[in-house]
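Crash report, auto-generated. Payload:
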Amino acid sequence: MHIDPPREEWLNRQQRLQERMAQVGLQGCLVSQNVGIYYFTGSMQTGYLFVPVDGTPTYYVRRSLARAQAESHVRTEELISFRTFGQQLATDYPEVFPPETKTVAIGADLDVMPAQLYLRLTEAIPQASLKDASALLRIVRSVKSAFEIERISNAAAIVAKALESGIDALKEGMTELELMTVIEGELRRDGHIGLMRMRGYNQEIMTGVVAAGDAAAEPTYFDGPAGGRGLTPAGPQSSSRRPIRRNEPILIDIGCCVDGYTIDQTRTAVIGEMSTELLAAYETATAIMRHSEKQLRPGTAPEQLYAEALRIAEAAGLSEHFMGFGRDQVKFLGHGIGLEIDEWPVLARGFRDPLEPGMTIAVEPKFTFPGVGVVGVENTYLITETGCRPLTVSPERIYSKPAR
Amino acid sequence: MHIDPPREEWLNRQQRLQERMAQVGLQGCLVSQNVGIYYFTGSMQTGYLFVPVDGTPTYYVRRSLARAQAESHVRTEELISFRTFGQQLATDYPEVFPPETKTVAIGADLDVMPAQLYLRLTEAIPQASLKDASALLRIVRSVKSAFEIERISNAAAIVAKALESGIDALKEGMTELELMTVIEGELRRDGHIGLMRMRGYNQEIMTGVVAAGDAAAEPTYFDGPAGGRGLTPAGPQSSSRRPIRRNEPILIDIGCCVDGYTIDQTRTAVIGEMSTELLAAYETATAIMRHSEKQLRPGTAPEQLYAEALRIAEAAGLSEHFMGFGRDQVKFLGHGIGLEIDEWPVLARGFRDPLEPGMTIAVEPKFTFPGVGVVGVENTYLITETGCRPLTVSPERIYSKPAR
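Recovered output after restart:
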């Protein structure tokens, strides 16, 4: 069932990291996070990946070594003990850690590595001065290979099918959760692992959010324009037990993670008809999408897309409703997507490095009306040599069903 | 739908933390993790909870402030800016941060807080010397209130119902994933948020694992005795697409998270009959369970339960198969459970602080036979004043269906 990338791809991933490391003077990089380890090795077992600035990486595995050895495409060895990890590294990489040198600059994924582990690693590898290499790792991952693009496309086809099942099942009076359960069942049967991985601390997303009317418009901690009410303050996002009623917008912002790769898409649905105000806001969202598509090409600064979307929203008199409402707005138009849902680049102020071919980006213009609902659309695009190509395959329209 | 604990419970939780802080000389505690914040405030929005060693805590919220103010049971204020967080704390808590003092010992949840955030907080609150307070926080949470016990019992009833639906649907030739999807659908409809929260770094668990025969026995990174094959090396645990066959053990290790609280249980099923060897191992697992039940009472050292279970396994000639196989074994018999699935105490070497009334512990003796399968059982127990009481309600037996 699972297909691996071609052999040279693993080498390419590692070399792109090594180039970045050389540019900033890192002698090595220690990857501790499951997703990061998988990206460079093809395995996700517990351990650490060490990538020297020159030469061959080693995957030091605590558990399960047997499984890691069966799956990994890089040199894979037993992590003898945490306490002696520094000695093991010094023995394996004398050129990185020459005996006469006191400390060497080693990058690590400090945006996800727990502080307790960071402090313990500092003791276990006293010859390493751990630097934050999160940005490097995220930049390397932002440009996808043909293999990765195919995986995301596959996830896109699966989510499109689940949306159709959801629309088929949609009826007045069913709860958000009931509709979500139909969609989730489809996605799971097609290989969704049940979780869309997210890098941000404290962020959780399983299958996205199906939410209607005022419940969709409730503000949340979730780092997106619309999180939904959720079932409980102990799970304050996504679908709730609120019944779906006629003539209100239904936000179907869903995705899945299949073979490790994630897709994210949003469609607006309605039973009956939406008000003129909401229809106008939906049209503004699609206008932003069309305008964004023209700019999604190599060379554009990601922050420009957000700035221009803001301008279109403002011209439509909808600034306060754009990407959440009032003080609960998020300050972006979209995000990179791949093994995680919150990858780089973010379409937000401060992201100036130009778009490159191979980047995959979810663009999600949405408008929130407190007490009323959320309308909008979200597509995932691939940046090509000359522009962009949608990976999302669900037809872009309002999914309406007659009220009876 | 959601029910809050009684008003005095919030004060009690905070006071128990303050007592522990005073014992170890911490002047305050900063809680950053979503679950930790929820435990002390009743809300899970993005921000930080500061608990002084004496006096009233404050929940500093970045987003959504409106939602946090609606949900929180402690003083809730806007986090003005990350950069000035230290000044905001110094202004609000002059007794904790007296102007003449250089640095003050402040605890934090460093086992989950990312290193990057830890380093940034160290700069933003220069007057605080951040200490690892993970153990304190875990100890406080290990003893549950009547309200919490009721929530876990409620989750236990929901998972028992889902198991029945799974057993009804079980038939020869269906895949592990198909059976899991039936169970998950039931659990979701009954309020499972889709994720069983786990504190351990890189650990993921959505609904547990349904796995049969050799797939159940595959070693994994997952910090439990049996993780399962999973769908992909990028999701290397839980159910796979392997068909379930007759006369092989089917591991149904499932749980849910409802209203924030988690339950965890395991039952062994079979279509047809298991071999004498597997039946004997199952009997040893239940013997360990009966022996554990006698020791689950206030005063017992958690590590003693693990040591005695090892002894019973050894006497049965099953040491190498106990809690995983060979070098992929885990070194525990069970774990605390509540808002997270990997709470304290762990029934493992080094856990010597005696059991206390109110602790809730999942006990999971299991035996792994590579290439053949996993058998075992798991119940969650409440420690009472005089012994223990099972919270799990599913009948403890082998769930067998006839092969046709």
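Post-recovery validation: Residues 143-401 of chain B form a domain with the Creatine Amidinohydrolase fold (CATH 3.90.230.10).
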